[in-house]
Design a protein that fits this description.
heterodimer; A: alpha/beta; 4-stranded mixed beta sheet; about 10% strand; B: alpha/beta; 6-stranded mixed beta sheet; binds adenosine-5'-triphosphate; binds magnesium ion
């Protein structure tokens, strides 16, 4: 008996059994896609959140800066007038605002919370640069240096670019582990392993068929994921050596398959001999 | 090599139980051999050792001149096995199932479809195995054992879940295979099945062979009386005892049964009295042999 024929028919039988198993299909393909939709809804069109500042009393430095810079500043900074200083401070303490700003003479005072160090840093940096440019303006000289900032990632790095691969990784891992262990356990409890042992198909073809089917399912998952995430709604863009994902997916699925086989062998050990 | 299967002094222990306790027999080429016995007698264990699924604790087995243990790929295509519990690939249809098993042996799909026909499942070809009835599943499992045209076929209680009609159909299938020169070994609880099908039977209990031979010879060797029964009430037991040739009589309220070694004389006497209502005559069966051998009623 040549092993190749056995490998082919066993792989086919496994694959047909998988495709007809709605539960397995749901958990390996649809369920992770569901998360893609949810994540896209939550983080999909996220821009850097604005810094919310409450201004108490008159603060000409801040007002002039907003007036001068216009949209360039209001994209990152939202200023709100608050009459009551105590109420404004409470807002910061509770996280509803990021800072309270007031001006005493030539000193701009910023009250911030250490609860969110990232926001605190942003507030201090932002207000610091406002004060400095006001200072330069007051000296009557043209500013000599200027800053232009540029991101290292290209413009496509939306959230979908990194949560598609991570969700795919999770889907591959669970499909690999569950698929392999479940096959081994059901084949054993149903007595199929004993029956196949009596057929001339070499033992390696049983495992070979599982590997073939798992790799095929993984590539299917990859295709479906990339296909769905590339829809305009999600906006995934493939670039660079993205096709290297194919060997990576294969390698990853083999690793998880190995874990699944160990689990399957262990979980099936004490299952009944027959019936 | 004279025998197709040769078993010598087979032993298998499970914990404290001697499941097989020194079984020996030979099966000739083309023979239809039955292993008969009650639950737990050791039939399945014996069969599985011969098939190569289990390793014996002691004794020797050879099948077609080869040792079944360890697994020998030269032997496997020449034997066909139906296990006691049907085992299938999940969510395949009957036809796909049979084709998959067939392809493991290099059998073309056409042959698998013919096999499906011959066990009467052509109408269920596209039904998934999970949706088959118990008897249909059993027939499919037998078809899987036969699909590659093996020289020796092992069947573990093939007719256990079948209705009388399907049972008779399967008997025909098995007889046809046997007539084609195949050797068949089957286990069964059913005495009448063994009598109808088998050239020879081994009656097994508690891991030992109690008796071995052609069913008719076993029954004849018993020299047991025949039983004639008529409906109760036509005749009292004491009247029956006074008839010629009657050795014993018993009335259970439903029917009156008399034991005799001359049934024709008894029937004639009953006829003369006009007492033949509901008459039935039964010769000794394998069940009587079992009763004689073990001293207990046969309970399958
Ligand atoms: N794997 C096992 N572990 C422990 N005991 C076992 C095992 N298999 C069988 N036995 C015991 O060995 C004895 C013979 O079992 P076996 O299955 O051979 O009987 P059988 O004649 O086929 O019965 P049945 O008619 O119910 O199929 C029984 O007492 C059973 O409990
Ligand atoms: Mg049994």
């Amino acid at each position: 008996m040549n092993g190749v024929g056995g490998l082919r028919s066993l792989s086919w039988a496994l694959f047909a059994g998988f495709v007809r198993d709605r539960g397995a299909l749901f958990f390996t393909v649809l369920f992770p896609l569901l998360f893609l939709v949810v994540f896209a809804g939550v983080f999909g069109h996220q821009s850097t959140p604005k810094v919310r500042v409450v201004q108490v009393g008159a603060a000409p430095v801040l007002e002039q800066a907003v007036g001068r810079a216009g949209r360039a500043l209001t994209d990152t900074l939202a200023v709100e007038r608050g009459g009551d200083r105590a109420a404004a401070l409470r807002k910061v303490a509770e996280g509803d605002a990021d800072a309270v700003v007031e001006q005493h003479g030539d000193v701009l005072v910023a009250h911030y919370s250490v609860a969110d160090p990232v926001k605190a840093g942003t507030v201090r940096g932002l207000l610091g640069s406002i004060v400095q440019s006001a200072d330069v303006a007051a000296s009557g000289r043209e500013p000599r240096f200027s800053l232009r900032s540029q991101r290292v990632e290209d413009e496509s790095l939306g959230a979908v670019q990194f949560f598609t691969p991570s969700l795919l990784g999770w889907a591959l891992a669970s499909a690999g582990v569950f698929g392999a262990s479940q096959t081994l356990v059901t084949w054993r409890t149903r007595g199929l392993l004993r029956r196949l042992r009596l057929s001339p198909a070499p033992v390696w073809t049983l495992f070979g068929a599982r590997v073939v089917v798992s790799v095929a399912v993984a590539l299917l998952q990859l295709a479906v994921f990339l296909g769905v995430a590339s829809l305009p709604f999600f906006g995934l863009r493939l670039q660079g050596a993205w096709w290297m994902a194919v060997p990576l997916v294969v390698a990853g699925v083999l690793a998880f398959l190995a874990i699944g086989m160990v689990i399957g062998a262990w979980a099936g050990r004490r299952s009944p001999r027959r019936r | 090599m004279a025998y197709t299967i040769s078993v010598r002094g087979l032993r298998k222990r499970y914990g404290g139980v001697n499941a097989v306790d020194g079984i020996s027999f030979d099966v000739a080429a083309g023979e239809f051999f039955g292993i008969l016995g009650p639950n737990g007698a050791g039939k399945t264990t014996t069969l599985e050792i011969i098939e190569g699924l289990r390793r014996a604790d002691g004794g020797e087995v050879s099948v077609l001149g080869l040792a079944p243990w360890p697994r020998d790929p030269r032997l496997l295509p020449r034997i066909g096995v139906q296990l006691q519990a049907s085992s299938f690939f999940e969510r395949l249809t009957a036809r796909e199932q049979l084709r998959t098993f067939g392809s493991l042996y290099g059998v073309p799909g056409r042959r698998a479809d013919e096999m499906l026909e011959s066990v009467g499942l052509a109408g269920k070809a596209d039904t998934r195995v999970e949706a088959l009835s118990g008897g249909q599943a059993q027939r499919l499992s037998i078809a899987c054992a036969l699909v590659h045209d093996p020289e020796v076929v092992f069947l573990d209680e093939p007719t256990a879940a079948l209705d009388p009609q399907a049972r008779r159909n399967l008997w025909d299938v098995l007889r046809a295979i046997n007539t084609g020169g195949r050797t068949i070994v089957l286990t069964t609880h059913s005495m009448d099945e063994a009598e109808v099908l088998c050239d020879r039977v081994a009656i097994v209990d508690a891991g030992r062979v109690l008796e071995l031979g052609p069913p008719a010879a076993l029954v004849r060797g018993l020299d047991a009386p025949a039983r004639v029964s008529v409906a109760a009430g036509v005749l009292t037991a004491s009247e029956a005892l006074s008839l010629p040739g009657v050795d014993g009589a018993e009335d259970d309220g439903v029917s009156l049964t008399v034991q005799t070694r001359d049934p024709s004389a008894v029937v004639a006497a009953l006829a003369a009295r006009g007492a033949l209502a509901g008459v039935g005559i039964r010769g000794a069966t394998l069940e009587d042999v079992f009763l004689e051998l073990t001293g207990r009623e046969y309970r399958a």
